[in-house]
Amino acid sequence: MDSVTQIALGAAVGGVIGHKQLGWRAYALGAALGTLPDLDVLVQYDNAVDNVTRHRGFSHSLFVLTALSPVLAWLIQRYRHWQQYKVSFWRMLLLCWLCLITHPLLDAFTSYGTQLLWPLQPPPTSWSSIFIIDPLYTLPLLIGVGFAMYWRTAKQPHRGYWPNVIGLSVASLYLAMSFGLAQHMRSAGQQSTQAQQLDGQLFVSPTPFNIALWRIVLVTENDWYSAYVSLFDDDASPQFHHGGKLNHQLGNGLADVERLAWFTNGFYHINIEDDQLVVTDLRLGVEPIMPFRFVVAQQQGDHWQPIKSEQLPTKRPRGDQLTWLWQRLRGQTNEAPAAIDYQLQD
């Protein structure tokens, strides 16, 4: 999720554990711990594929964060300023641990994928039920923390505790609802593939900033398809449209392609653009705006020469494509998204 949401979640969790003992300090400490795992963005690797696929790696590992929690709890309590507060080591340990691990667990609800079990190497966990930025999840957290901080400042600490609990509960219920909707959309997608006599793997994800319009990607042995389903559709049966060939064979023997195949769990396609091999992550985006596209090889004669991978610039849609997204969300059109005439982002 975005940094604001992770800070808000960390603050809310910290407040639930330490509000009565630490006051505003519990929220500040939770906010800091809640954003700590994302400091891995400061680590720059040699190429674009590694920068993307190693993010949410070691710093998001449940093993690493669990091992780090008692160290941080001990260091905090060793600091003389914190010794004046009557907080047991076990409460401080619980605060540190929950604020840290809720970060990667929330990230695992997005489509990007999170390596919860690093250094083990299963494909990144992606329950894919919430967009990376969703105001309806973030706002209850911010409102709850805001009221708690206000009433704490007004010297009404017991009154301030409950707005934070309520805000965290509302956000958690929204997250649970998104997960339930994702499973419902997956079931609808499976029924539709059977009706259309298509056989393959499905990936379900919400479209930007909402959980009302969902995108379903189907990869078969050689092709990929996509469908969009809105909660406001009269007919909730997804209609899959052919996206193109996967062309996975073009990437045989290329390390960056193998890395992306693992990272996407097979939801990628390869195409040739200007004598370059381009790999696209099919899980994220709304056609034709696919944000994770990588140049991984250059054509030399009859073979592909690996190069230092680069991420292609993100595209931005025209106004009429945004209009389509809004209309599709409200169930006012069943057309597939247009795939022409998009511009480079400024």
How is the secondary structure organized here?
Blueprint: H1 3-22, H2 24-35, H3 48-53, H4 62-78, H5 89-107, H6 135-153, H7 157-195, E1 201-206, E2 213-219, E3 223-230, E4 241-245, H8 255-264, E5 268-273, E6 276-281, E7 293-300, E8 303-311, E9 315-316, H9 319-329, E10 343-344
Antiparallel strand pairs: 1-2, 2-3, 3-4, 5-6, 6-7, 7-8, 9-10
Helix pairs in contact: 1-2, 1-5, 1-6, 1-7, 2-5, 4-5, 6-7
Describe the structure.
By secondary structure, this protein is α+β, with helices and mostly antiparallel strands. It starts with a helix and ends with a strand. It is globular. The protein has helices spanning 3-22, 24-35, 48-53, 62-78, 89-107, 135-153, 157-195, 255-264, 319-329, and strands spanning 201-206, 213-219, 223-230, 241-245, 268-273, 276-281, 293-300, 303-311, 315-316, 343-344. Helix 2 crosses helix 5. Among the domains are: 3-126, no CATH class; 128-245.
Q: Give the N-to-C terminal Cα separation.
A: 24 Å
Strand order of the largest sheet: 1-2-3-4
Could you list the spans in which at least 5 consecutive residues all have pLDDT below 50? 340-346
Q: Strand fraction band?
A: 15-25%
Report the major sheet.
4 strands, antiparallel
Whole-number mean pLDDT: 91
Query: Counting H and I runs of at least 4 residues, what is the number of helices?
Result: 9
Q: Rg, please?
A: 23 Å
**SSE string, helices as H and strands as E:** HHHHHHHEEEEHEEEEEHE
Shape estimate: globular
**What class, by secondary structure content?**
alpha+beta
Give helix % range. 40-55%
Give a count of the beta strands, DSSP E runs of length 2 or more. Answer: 10
